[in-house]
Amino acid sequence: MYEFPQWIIPSSIFLLVALTILNYWSTSTGRTEDCGCYGGVVIITPQQSLLLNLGYILLLIIAWLNPIPNHHTETWQWILTLIVMVSASTFGWQSQQQPIFNFSRLKEGNRWKPSWLKNSPYDLQEGSYFIVFLSQTCGYCKRWIPFLNMMQTQKKLPQVLGILSINDEAIETFKTEQRARFPVVSMDKLLFSYMADAFPTAVLVENGKIVSKWIGEIPPEFLDKIKQSYEGAIVGKSTTVKQPEYATVGTSQSSNVATLTESSITPQKFSESSFFERLRNKSIEIERRNSLSGEDFYVNYYAKNKPVIITDMITEWPALSLWTPNYLKANYGDTEVEIMANRNSDDQYEINMENHKKKIQLGDYVNIVVNQGENNDYYMVANNRNLETGELARLLEDIIMPPEYLDKSNSSGKVFFWFGSAGTITPLHYDEVPLMMAQIYGRKRWQIIPPIYTPFLYNHVGVFSEVDCDKPDYDKYPLFENVKVIEVVLEPGEIIFVPSGWWHQVKALDISISLSFTNFVFSQKNLCQ
């Protein structure tokens, strides 16, 4: 006979209280948005988990205050404990595919109740709607937005509606910062917590009925379900869209534009007529424009999130004739600058950039650039911010910011200097703000991918993809076979506009000097509205 240890119950109470406090802190501060309880056997919200913990604490306190004298554990009690543990493990394993108990209101087959969302811009009881529960602190949510923007441009696809549990002013800030081009509305926080178990959560509502539901990062099967759900709305119907779809590759010799040619890639999952099939087969152009007015640029490119190359914007810049490696060495050689060094030793050099920052005199760096040949080991990049301090800021006297595009008074921290040898690479990523890059010296090859392909790009950390466009490993990254890559070469004297959300990988073909700008004169708040 074994006596029940007296310390177990108070220790359990202490542990549950500590975990409950941690649960409350993590959910109230936005650090945790999914309870993650019970291995998925039962799906509950963090608030429901708190109530359960309080119930467990109360039961333990009752047991502690009302002990059973001379209690010992019988054989049948050990057997019962073992049965419970085995059953719980079995349920946990089974719930990896489907929750055993699901108390969420957003179950397939349920009706969407009008009382859930009183400020909806749509009548959700009629028509087709793609409703997404979002969070300000959710990285996956932000990665969905380019995809949702593209869906919203298609007249024959369901309307997109985003939902947040914040006030209207915060929603407008979220839409502006994330460049969301679909309606986003607020829902009561308590109701919101019962509706969504994790973020992002998306449901497809057809005539008031929830027909599909997805949670988390966009997986391949998500796109399959989208295709299957929307096939009837697409096949045989008009291809008219509210905005153009952009996906191009190659260079047309006759029209002086980058043009999409038929791809040799034939993905198995998207061989039928669908939105994705039409997008893959569509021939679209990235234009090279000259004499482009600020109004024309804003209306046809900036506001439409469409890239363009401008061939004559910087032809009058003194920098175009002055800036060479020798000029930088002769005029700024003694200036201390920061560069990225030893990048060849780290496959994740861009993500681990803090480990590669190094101080060096510019003259010594010029010698490295000129003498090392084609190499990616040393590079002066935007994140070195050399124009913000020191003598290199005087280089801005050699450029003329076009006032109809760029705001000179708002250039601090928004103009960046790039300088490196042939072979320097910026890996595949997207920027969260639109940018222009002016090519001053040498050439750079740009490989650009539209936001619609984000689900195929293995976006693993922040804004970065794991895929190398030059040498894609299709065994490791099979979805990349669905992607079309735009490839253009930026010549000296040209400037490229890259909208936010557009993926790009850049390689210097020669020793290269470039400037990038994010200080546009256009108000993104007004654009979003």
Automatic annotation (TrEMBL):
It comes from the Bacteria. The keyword Transmembrane applies. It holds the Pfam family Cupin_8. Residues 384-529 form the JmjC domain. Keywords: Membrane, Transmembrane, Transmembrane helix. The chain crosses the membrane at residues 6-25, 37-64, 76-93. Signal peptide: none annotated. This is JmjC domain-containing protein. It comes from Aphanothece sacrum FPU1. The lineage of its organism: Bacteria, Bacillati, Cyanobacteriota, Cyanophyceae, Oscillatoriophycideae.
